[in-house]
Structures are given as structure tokens and as C-alpha cells.
Amino acid sequence: MLKVGIWLLLSLLSGSGLIIYALQQQYEEQSIDFRILHRDITVKLAQHETILSLLSVTSDPSVIQEKFPQILAWKPLPSAAAPHTLLPAGKGTYWLNDQHFALLIDLNVLLAELPQSHYFRHIRLSWQNAELIELGGRWQPAYWQWDKEVASALQPFELSASRDPDWARLPWLLMLLASLGWAGIIYFVSQYRVQKRQRNIAVLREHFSELTRLNAMGEITTGIVHELNQPLTAILSYNQAALRLLNQQQAHKVPPLLDAAVIQIKRISALLLQFRQKLTHDRVVFQAVNLGEIWSRVTMLLENEIQSGRVNVINRLPATLPPLRAEPLWIEQIFHNILTNAIQAQQHQAASWVAISAVASEQGITLQLKDGGPGLSEQALQQVFMPFFTTRPDGLGLGMALAETLIHRLGGSIKVENIAGQGACFTLWFPFNAQEE
């Protein structure tokens, strides 16, 4: 609509300019014709005065009428007649009197001999506000009107003429071409702007894609650091404990520590495989997952943290809980991140605990993980799942964001709230017929 409005406005402006110019040209032409008409009438009237002054008793009327057909008759006047008078005789005629003679003049014949008299819609000659002759019917207002007094001593007439513009002579074709020209200009300008905008968008998309790749690489790198930090710390702890036991000649206690270190190494391998799948977009094949077994494995992986923090882990998962179809490592990461946060939130408490429970329905399984910590602040409740949000000075803020992402990829949901007199409560829901999203 904006383009149509601009086109109409430009067409109107250009058309108005062309019409005004054409009308001005016609007016100038008609003004010239009026000046010519005024000059010819003035000349004719001056001839009447000259003839009147040259008449004598011996003048031949036929000769005079042959040369001046507008003079219908002439007659001598008595010496007592008023000198230099003009008497209207009706129907466009009048008597022009001198001291000795009078001429009967027909203005109809006079004007008919002048070509310019046919160029106007109306022509009127008046004397002392009395109409002598009017051509073109009854006088009506017209678009243009000219008025000028005839400079004559005996015949001081007022010449008036009017005419309407010749609308057919207006540059309609040029106006149409101008309108089409504006339409073409607007079209090409709009196409140029569209193409320029598309080029700009393409450039911005290219820059955005580059920034997205760089940002993705940064997030992946940060995610790898976050996910590998726990198992690497556990492996270091197990190996240090094994070295102490070997130095204390207690080699029989070393194999369990090495087994635990092997489990952590395998977990690192699985994490790296998962990051590779994210980079290559390989589709994950879901399998039946026992939530109780994965929870037990996560508590074993975090055994050092649980023991050092003296956290009481309460497992209320029903033994009859049906399996889910999911990626086991995803469930392990979800449990691992939530349990790690719960342990860290209760570092300075005398009595710390974490409880997990589950309820199965026809559509899926609802899990609840509660802790005895101080709970989350109002800001944390709103931003806990935002990437890089953390309340710990050494935290990366990716654990809960990754957990939410994995839960959504399983078609589930997660929410968090504070429980009065306890701490935070995370509620997770997983569908039975999960498909990767």
C-alpha cells in the first residue's frame, strides 16, 4: 500500500504540474489573441472617426460601404445637433455623430471580419455600462476572462472576452507516460532495496553463522570441561588413594580403587562420544533404561563428595518402576548434575540429605529430587536453567542448562521450587514413548 500511495502522490504531482504548465501556455496564447483582437477593434473604430471627419455632401455612400461594410448608412446632421455623440440603435448597431454627419455602424459585421473573434467563447462590447453587442449567447462565468478599455475619443468602449481551456489539448498522453514512468522507477527502486536488503541479510547471516559456530565451539569446550572435571577429579582421588595404600603395604585394598577409576575413565569415553554425536548430528538410538540402576551408578561416581559432605542419600525409587526408553548417559548426566548441585548447596550444613522418589503413570514417569539445603533465591528460581548462570564463584553455570536440554530432547520437562522447611525440589517428567527432539 505504501508503494501505491507513493505512486499515486508522484503521479498526482507530476500530472498537476503538467496541467498547470499546459493551462498557462493556453492562457498565454489566448492573451495574445485578445490583445490582437483589441488592437484590430481599436483600428476599426479609429477608421470610423477618420471617415466621419472626411465625409462631405458629395461623398459616395456605395464606395464607403464597399470598403467598410460595417457602416450601414450615414446622414447629414442639422447644425444644431450636439457634437460628438454616440447613440445605441439596438442589435449591435449604434449611431456615431459628428458636427455635420452621423454613421450607422454594425458591430456584428465589424467583429465577424476579425478572425480572433472566433477564438473566444463570449465577446462583449459595452459603453457606459450599457451592452452594445454580445457574441456567444448569454454571458456566463468562464475559466478565463479578459477586460480592456478601447482607447478612442468618440467610441470609448469596454471590450470583454472569456473562454474555457481546451481540455482536449492537455497533455494526457504525457501524463500517462509520466505515471507509468513513476511506476517503473518505484518498481526498480523497490527491487533494488529488496535485493540490497537480501544481500545485507545474507551478510548478517554469514556473520551470525560464524558467531554461532564460534559460540557453539565455546559452549562445547566449556561443556567438555564441566563434564570431564568430575570424573577426572575422581580418578585423581582414586589413584592418590591407591598410591597411599601401596606405600602402606595394603595392596589388597587397591583393586576396588582401580575398578572405580576404570569406571570413571569409561564415563569420560562415553562423554566424549556424546559430544562427538552432537558435532556430527548422529541420531541417538534410545534403549530401555532402569532409573534405579543409573541412580546407584551416579551415587557411586559421587561417593567421595557424598562421604566428604556427609550427605545422606535417600533412595525411594520403587523396585517395580518401569524402564524408560532413553539414552542412558543422558539420564546419568541429568542425575549427576542435580545431585552435584544438591551436595554443593549443603556443604556447610551439619545435617545434609538428598532424596529421590518416582511415580509412574500411563504416559510417563514423574521424578522428584529434594534436598535439605537453604533452597534457591528468587533470582536463581528464574534463571537456574539459563546457560552460565551460577551462584558459586568457581562454577561454570552449565550443569542445569545441560540437564534441561537433555530432558527436553527426551520429550520431558523439568521445574524447580522451594519447599518450606526443606530445600529445593526438582520435578522431572519423562514420557515412555520418548523420541529425540
From the structure above, extract its key features:
ATP binding, Heat Shock Protein 90, HisK_dim/P_dom, transferase, 2 domains, ATP-binding, alpha+beta, 4-stranded antiparallel β-sheet, 10 helices, two-component regulatory system, 437 residues
Can you describe this structure?
- Its EC number is 2.7.13.3.
- It catalyses: ATP + protein L-histidine = ADP + protein N-phospho-L-histidine.
- InterPro entries: HATPase_C_sf, HATPase_dom, His_kinase_dom, HisK_dim/P_dom, HisK_dim/P_sf, Sig_transdc_His_kin-like_C.
- The chain has 437 residues and is α+β, with helices and mostly antiparallel strands.
- The chain folds into 2 domains: 2-169, no CATH class; 283-437, Heat Shock Protein 90.
- Helix content is 51%, strand content 20%.
- The chain contains 10 helices and 15 strands.
- Helix 6 crosses helix 8 (328-345) and helix 8 (328-345) runs antiparallel to helix 10.
- The two termini are 41 Å apart.
- The mean pLDDT is 84.
